[in-house]
Amino acid sequence: MKLHEYQSKIIFRKYGVPIPQGYLAMTANEAKRIAEELGDMVVIKSQVLVGGRGKAGGIRLAKNPKETEEFAAEILAMEIKGLPVRKVLVDEAVNFVKEIYLGITHDRQMRCPIMIASSAGGVDIEEIALATPEKIFKVPINPLYGIRDFQARNLAVCIDLPRDLWKEFIEICRSLWMVFSETDAIMAEINPLVITTKQKLMALDGKMVIDDNALFRQPDFLEYRDVDMEDASEIEARKYGLSYVHLDGDIGCMVNGAGLAMTTMDVIQFVEGKPANFLDVGGGASAEKVAIAFRIILSDPNVKVILINIFGGITRCDEVARGILAAMGEIKPTVKLVVRLVGTNANEGLDLLKKQDIITAPTLLDAAKKAVGIAKGAIV
Ligand code: GDP
Ligand code: MN
Fold first, then answer.
1. 57 lines ligand 1 (CB under 6 A)
2. Dist. CA 349–CA 353, nearest whole Å
3. CA proximity to 315, closest of 353, 354, 336, 287
4. For the whole prediction, is pTM greater than 0.85?
5. Cα angle, residue 91 at apex, residues 87 and 97 outer, rounded to 5°
6. What is the pLDDT of residues 87-143, one digit of tens each?
7. pLDDT tens profile 26-77
8. CA torsion angle for 45, 46, 50, 54 (degrees, to 10)?
9. Per-residue pLDDT tens for 219-257?
C-alpha cells in the first residue's frame, strides 16, 4: 500500500525526521487560508500516488495567498498520469543549496534492507541511477541492529556531506530506519533531503510503501488507504477476499492457490502468451466466488479468453465444474473459457463441462497453448 506524501510526512515527523510546516487542502480556498497562516512563500503539491509530480507540473511555488489559490485551483483540476488530484499539500517553501537522495528498501539479492544515498537527489534520480550508478551508494542493514552510526557516517562521506551536517544526517538515518521498520514498510524514501540555505537538513518530499501483508498489525494505516488511487477491480476483489492483480496481457486467469496462479502465468508466458491478471480465488470455488471472479476478469476489456486452472483437493472438481456452469449461467461470459481441472473427481467435473461445450485440457501446458491460440485468433 502506497502512502501519500502528506501521510509519509506525518510519520516522518513522529519519528523525528525534520519536515517543513504544512497542511492538507481539498479546495483552492483552503489552500489560500493555509498560505495566509504560513505567511510566506509556499509550495503547493499535488497528492497523487505516482512519481514525477514535479515534472508533470503538479508542484508549484507561490509567492502569496492569492497566487496560492490560483495555482491550487489549477493543480486540483489536473490529472497526473491518469490519476485525479483531489488534495494538495501546502508547505512553507524552503530555500536550499543542495538536494540529496536518502531511502531504505529491501534488497532481494542481499536479502536484507539497504539504505541508499546519493548526492544527486531531486527529480532526476531515476536517470542518474541508470546513467551513473557510481553516484548511488548503498549499505546493508542488519534488521536486528538497525542502521549503525558508522554506516550512516560512511554514507555521509560518500555523498560529500559537509562535516557539520554529519550529526544531523546520522540522526535522520536512524529515524528513517525506525520509520521503515516500525511501520512494516517495504520502501521509505526522502527525495529530496535538502541542505537549506540555513545549513540544516530537511525532508521536502516523502514516499512510503507499506507491506500489504503486514496491514493486519498496522491498523492505523487502514484509514490511510486512498481508493481514488487504486485499480477499481483490485478494490472489488479485495472486498470478496480474492487476490487479484491487474496486468497488461489478454489471457484472463482464474486459479485456486497463489503458487498455482504464479505457475499458470509462467506457463502462459512460456508458450508466448501474456496473462491479463493474477487471480487467486483461494480454497474452494463456489458458484458465487467464480461469478465474482468472472465479473472482475471480464471488467478488463483486453481479456480475449479465460484460462481456469483448478486443483481439486478438499474441494471436489465436480463441485467446481458446477460452480463454473452456474456462474456462466449468471454472468454469460463473452469470451471463451479453457478449463483444466485436476484432483478429486476431476473426470466427473470435466464430463460436466464437456457436455456444455466448454474447452477442457488435460494438462496445464495444453490449456495454456489452447488459451494462447484463442487469444491470437485461432479457432479451437
Ligand atoms: P516529485 O517530483 O513527485 O518527486 O515531488 P518533490 O516533492 O520531490 O518535488 C519536486 C521538486 O520540487 C524538488 O526536487 C524540488 O526541487 C522542488 N521543491 C519541492 N519543494 C520545494 C520547496 O519548498 N522549495 C523549493 N525551492 N523547491 C521545492
Ligand atoms: Mn521527490
1. no
2. 7
3. 287
4. no
5. 135
6. 999 999 999 999 999 999 999 999 999 999 999 999 899 999 999 999 999 999 999
7. 999 999 999 999 999 999 999 999 888 999 999 999 999 999 999 999 999 9
8. -50
9. 989 888 887 777 788 888 888 888 899 999 999 999 999
To test ligand 1's pocket by mutation, which of 204, 207, 208, 229 has the most ligand atoms within 8 angstroms of CB? 204
51 Cα nearest atom in ligand 1: 3
**Active-site residues: which are they?**
101, 189
If you take atom 10 of ligand 1, which residue's CA is the nearest one?
A: 54
What is the separation, in whole angstroms, between the first and last Cα of the chain? Answer: 41
Name which residue sits closest to atom 26 of ligand 1, judged by CA. 95
Pairing of strands 336-343, 2-3: unpaired
Give the ligand whose atoms come closest to the C-alpha of residue 50: 1
3-class DSSP state of 149: helix
Q: Which domains, from first to last, does the chain contain? A: 21-92 (3.30.1490.20), 96-223 (3.30.470.20), 231-375 (3.40.50.261)
The residue that leads in pLDDT, 251 or 83, is: 251
| pLDDT tens digit sequence for 141-150 | 999 999 999 9
Query: What integer pLDDT is reported at residue 188 of this predicted model?
Result: 98
5 Cα nearest atom in ligand 1: 7
How far is 181 from 309, CA to CA, in rounded Å? 38
Half-sphere exposure at residue 162, Cβ-oriented, CA atoms within 13 angstroms: 10
Judged on CB neighbours under 10 Å (0-12, 13-18, 19+), 285 is buried
> With contact defined as beta carbons under 8 Å apart, do 283 and 260 qualify?
no
Cell of 157: 562521506
52 lines ligand 1 (CB under 6 A): yes
Find the 99 Cα to ligand 2 centroid distance in Å: 10
Q: How far is the CA of 331 from the centre of ligand 2 (A)?
A: 45
